[in-house]
Amino acid sequence: MNNTLHNGLQVLEFLADTAEAVSVKEVAAYFQLPNSHICRLLKSLAEAGYVEQLPGSRKYRVSLKILNLANARLKKEYLLGIARPYMRQLAEKVDGAVFVTRIYCGYSLIIGTEYPALFPEIHETVVGALHSPTSSACGKVCAAYAPEEIRSALLAEIAWAAPGDFQDRPADFEKELAVIRQQGWARRYIPGAVNAVGVPLFEKNGVLNGALGVMLPPQRDLTQDLWQTVIESALSCGKLISYAQGCPVEAYPGKYCTIKEEK
Length: 263
Hints:
Blueprint (H helix, E strand, L loop, with lengths): L2 H16 L3 E2 H8 L3 H14 L2 E3 L5 E4 L2 H10 L3 H17 L2 E8 L2 E8 L15 E2 L5 H9 L2 H10 L12 H14 L2 E5 L3 E9 L5 E8 L8 H21 L19
Antiparallel strand pairs: 1-3, 2-3, 4-5, 4-9, 5-6, 7-8, 8-9
């Protein structure tokens, strides 16, 4: 890739992630590049409409045009079109946030969400959120079913020494991925914080193209019966969406087994 183009895209990603106006000097310091180079990149991005300079200021921020770019891509996302009706039904049935993700380099990226009436939006389920493979249900599903070469590259990228669900335990993570492939679903539960289930979505020929996730409010009283209902409902929904994409019903790996009630 052209070096200037690469730097420009990195600057755009930085501005989108920062979500605040920053100066040329701040961007240059972050990337350790000359101010003049960053200034030219920002002006080019501003001319294209993807970056804007605040009136009366020398600071820049990502513009809303980037949303138009994302929307243009999502309008042609056939998985989302197929999944939407099933997602609505599932959201009302379990009274939780339901989202569909696409697999992206082994990661799980949310492309659509559905919420039941009067349900508060959850930060982790907004469109565009990228799930960690080690600390999210859909992230683990996408990692589990990714082709072996992608999964190996993904495991090599993970900073195992950093705090997280599998800190310094890569072998345990790989064992969990094997269990997910066997049972067809993943769960992440942290009392008072995260209550989520993820199942795989397949297209024809059994190729994984994403995951379906359900997230319940942290304050919900999570009985074993509720967990069973959520997992069974998610599996049924995942099977229907996969079948609608051409995946034979008998090829869908999801199965339900009794789980231990969390203490």
